[in-house]
């Protein structure tokens, strides 16, 4: 391993994707760029589980929520499939497009002790971005991301509930698929490689404009992601990642939702700050018929969560994916 990786670094003196840790943990997007004329196609699957309640940064009981609302959420597993494509028209510029399909189910309880489920699924918002490389030398790279998210995801998801039977009713904010607004996605990523180690740091922001057709706007998002990875050999690397993020409250309200009925329909219960840690690995085919095919896996757990109002807590998040360059 030492000879092969060291020779690759010495030959180019640049940051390179031609090693297993040449891409960030699979949960990180927009982490790398490509050489002129290169394409990359990717598929990711993410499972996230939300269960139990927080009020602020402390545990909350369902009875606490039901003393204020008629209905409270109890759990919400989510499955997301993400498709991406990247193309580099030059060594400085890489273009990226991403779309996802989300399915989610929420279990809710009422004051009478009953439970019911609501579901939603569909394609989310389309994201287009440009990644611009400022420099790539001395095994270091710095690049920026400038992108826009188009409101292709639904904000009108409905389902039947005990109160609406037999008719469907609009679902609260967390069960909607898209934002309903045009959103700017901005980021800055720094990468550094050594012979036996690599490091990455990424700052990102999502900025939402105007309000959607249902008279609200999701909160802006800010995050700092840092990771280290260690190549064990030419085809395998371990990684560790720590992320801090903040999400602002929802601005405005959907007039078709009753904030007194259910916790998730009250925008006072939106927005949070949190930190999470993840561990994972990358498998990289550096030669043969599968050359430049990469498989990544990461498992993440929350370190800290501070909610506005009462909200479901994040539990485990699992992400896996395939990336193929040509």
Describe this structure in words.
It is a single chain. This protein has helices spanning 2-12, 62-66, and strands at 39-55, 58-60, 71-87, 93-110, 115-123, 126-137, 140-150, 158-160, 168-170, 183-193, 198-208, 216-217, 221-231, 236-247, 251-252, 272-284, 293-307, 310-325. It is built from 2 helices and 18 strands. The protein is elongated and about 65 Å long. Strands 1-3-4-6-7-10-11-13-14-16-17-18 form a 12-stranded antiparallel beta barrel. Strands 8-9 form a two-stranded antiparallel ribbon. The chain is 5% helix and 57% strand. The protein is mainly beta.
Question: TL;DR?
Answer:
The chain is 5% helix and 57% strand.
Query: What's the count of strands?
Result: 18
State the low-pLDDT regions, or none. Answer: 7-11
Instruction: Give the biggest sheet.
Output: 12 strands, antiparallel, barrel
How much helical structure, as a percent, in the residues? under 10%
Provide the gyration radius in Å.
21 Å
Look at the helices and sheets and give the structural class.
mainly beta
The global form is: elongated
- Order of strands in the sheet with most strands: 1-3-4-6-7-10-11-13-14-16-17-18
Q: H/E order of the elements?
A: HEEHEEEEEEEEEEEEEEEE
Overall mean confidence score, pLDDT:
95
Strand content: over 45%
| Helical segment count | 2
- First-last Cα distance: 24 Å
């Amino acid at each position: 391993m030492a000879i092969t990786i060291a020779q690759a670094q010495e030959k180019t003196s640049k940051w390179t994707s031609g090693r297993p840790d040449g891409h960030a943990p699979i949960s990180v997007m927009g982490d790398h760029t490509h050489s002129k004329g290169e394409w990359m196609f990717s598929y990711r699957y993410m499972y996230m589980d939300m269960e139990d309640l927080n009020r602020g940064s402390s545990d909350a009981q369902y009875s606490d929520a039901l003393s204020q609302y008629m209905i409270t959420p109890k759990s919400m597993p989510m499955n997301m499939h993400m498709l991406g494509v990247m193309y580099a028209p030059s060594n400085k510029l890489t273009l990226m497009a991403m779309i996802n399909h989300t399915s989610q189910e929420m279990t809710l309880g009422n004051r009478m002790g009953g439970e019911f489920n609501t579901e939603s699924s569909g394609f989310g918002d389309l994201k287009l971005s440009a990644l611009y490389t400022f420099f790539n030398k001395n095994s270091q790279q710095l690049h920026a991301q400038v992108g826009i998210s188009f409101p292709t995801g639904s904000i009108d998801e409905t389902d039947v509930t005990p109160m609406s039977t037999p008719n469907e009713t609009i679902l609260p904010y967390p069960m909607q698929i898209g934002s309903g607004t045009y959103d700017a996605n901005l980021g800055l990523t720094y990468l550094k490689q050594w012979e036996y180690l690599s490091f990455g740091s990424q700052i990102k922001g999502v900025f939402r404009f105007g309000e959607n057709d249902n008279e609200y706007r999701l909160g802006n998002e800010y995050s700092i992601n840092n990771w280290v990875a260690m190549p064990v050999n030419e085809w395998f690397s371990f990684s560790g990642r720590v992320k801090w993020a903040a999400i602002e409250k929802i601005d405005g309200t959907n007039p078709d939702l009753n904030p007194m009925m259910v916790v998730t329909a009250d925008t006072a219960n939106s927005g949070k700050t949190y930190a999470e840690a993840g561990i994972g690995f990358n498998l990289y085919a550096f030669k043969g018929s599968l050359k430049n095919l990469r498989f990544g896996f990461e498992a993440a757990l929350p370190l800290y969560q501070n909610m506005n109002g009462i909200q479901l807590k994040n539990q485990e998040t699992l992400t896996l994916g395939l990336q193929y360059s040509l």
